[in-house]
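re: that chain from earlier
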Amino acid sequence: MPSAEQLQDLLLESPGFTEFLLGLATISASLLGGDSPMLCAITVERNGGPTTVASSTEAARRLDEKQYEFDDGPCLTALREQRTVLIPDLPSDEQWRHYAQAISSEGIRTIMAAPIHTEDGAKAALNCYSTELGTFDPATVARVEAHAGSLSRILRLALRLHAEDPYPEHLRSALRSRAITDAAIALVMVQNRCSRDAALRLIQLASRDSNKRLHEIASDILDRAGTGHQEGR
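^ sequence. v structure.
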């Protein structure tokens, strides 16, 4: 699990709330994925207003957004009812069969969503998807729930610091590029158990050695980790 200091560094270095969630989703996918990659997304609703979603991959974003088309789904249930939802075999599940049919082309076989406890006026959930049956055995379920619990404190702090996104639309492209770099730094910190400065130096060294821009190296790091990268909305 990332340390409290690493999560604080991620929050302090993220230019906005969505970019912070991108880092959390990327770290979550890297930490929780086993032999087969796990797709992760973090969903936040505040005061019944617009939803913020940050996803570790493009596929994870599509899987989350499809639930909003139905205004129902395992992840929305976990978020709104603040309870863990586990679907061991999605194609044979009756409760959300319409959702299962809508995402059948994605190859998802099992889903787990765990609430991230926040404060009054906000709700959040960690959404995990897998293409393999049996991914969420009791040990993995406990690990996902523990990880979601570990995000509670830093997410509550982020909600206070980022009450509203102050960045105008014309800055979003630059901020997305920065968010990908920050997510890669956070991932290197967790994987190497090092400080933010040390992780940044490693990425800068790789940039110089390969004659690639820092943003390109960051993208390569996320791709090699199997997490992909997808900004929130």
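The CA atoms of residues 40 and 128 lie 5 Å apart.
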